[in-house]
Amino acid sequence: MSRRRSRRLAVPGAEQGVNAFKAEVMRKEGYAVDPAHPDDVKYEVAKSLGVPLTPGDNGHLTTEDAGHIGGKIGGSMVREMIRLAQEKLSRQQP
């Protein structure tokens, strides 16, 4: 039996900003992103990785396959956040 994890953000109302950031990062990674549905980029990422992700129930996916998709998206977002933080810190240096 699969469990659905709650995907609530720690900051109420931040979802729109996070989705816009995800869209921007994944666009820079070369993926086509629909600004109205940035979360749908996961299907394009899955296709590029050869993972059979489809809208609806994906109970057939292995944890490894799901992790590849999330890792590609999340890893790209984390790298960009680190780059932005380093850039901000470098501007603060005297």
From TrEMBL:
Residues 52-72 are annotated as: Disordered. One of its GO terms (molecular function) is double-stranded DNA binding. GO terms for biological process: DNA topological change. It comes from the Bacteria. InterPro entries: SASP_alpha/beta-type, SASP_sf_alpha/beta. This is Alpha/beta-type small acid-soluble spore protein.
